[in-house]
Amino acid sequence: MTDRFDLSGKVALVTGASSGLGKRFATVLAASGAQVVLAARRAERLEELAASIAAEGGEALAVACDVTDRKSVAAAFEAAEARFGTVRLLVNNAGIAPGGAAIDMPEDAWRSVISTNLDAAFSVAQEAAQRMAKAGGGGAIVNLASILGFTVIKGVAPYAASKAAIVHLTRALALEWARYDIRVNAIAPGWIETEINADFLSGAAGDAIRKANPMRRFGEPADLDGALLLLSSEAGRYITGTTIAVDGGQSLSGS
Ligand code: NAD
Questions:
Q1: 72 in ligand 1 pocket by Cβ < 6 Å?
Q2: Mean pLDDT within 151-168
């Protein structure tokens, strides 16, 4: 049996690749043979990651991109096509998670989360799908949801709402884009220690969350490798519209 997880010859674009999960996703895709476009705002960090991927024998291109700016998104896809060809795999990963009580949250705080986590996730997916459909040959989109799209905690209302919307958007896009042979799925990570939650998880609330986890630990970025490769590769060719929770069982009891 050939390696059905192999991504050789595929061009992947990862948004928010400058840190955390996006950095890991880019590294794993490159190690699996994909040519990877690293798209985020912090160009210096992306160049470092591109160099470290190249040092491991992979191929990567760093492109400064703000996912909330459609022109910037289109330019990133143009740069990807010019260097490697049509992007066949999008990891729609960029996201923000500022905390705050809903009762007096300013409208701009709400808008910035929805604008990055939902509006931009849609427009980046649409940009990718339009180009895949035009080129023919299909592709795959992996969105980043969260277990906070299924269950909630206090202080993250716009984040939780945006991630619940990602779960449903994933289904809606999968339904519409199957005709172009584009699969759309999502990963819903549990609590994985990265920059987005480092302060929160290192406090008392983090301790309680860890203790409530059936596996008694937070996740590590590498815990998402299996779901990423399944949804990205030939191995997952009949999977579309689904969201895979990778959370050590955290969401099973609603905590
Ligand atoms: P992170 O803060 O390390 O990474 C987020 C990335 O998105 C950063 O590189 C950031 O620069 C980028 N980004 C934010 N706004 C952007 C914009 N406008 N344009 C371009 N890039 C932008 O956090 P992370 O934990 O790696 O999060 C990655 C994704 O995983 C997010 O969508 C997050 O919601 C999701 N997620 C994370 C966890 C977790 O526990 N870490 C759990 C569930 C879901």
A1: no
A2: 97
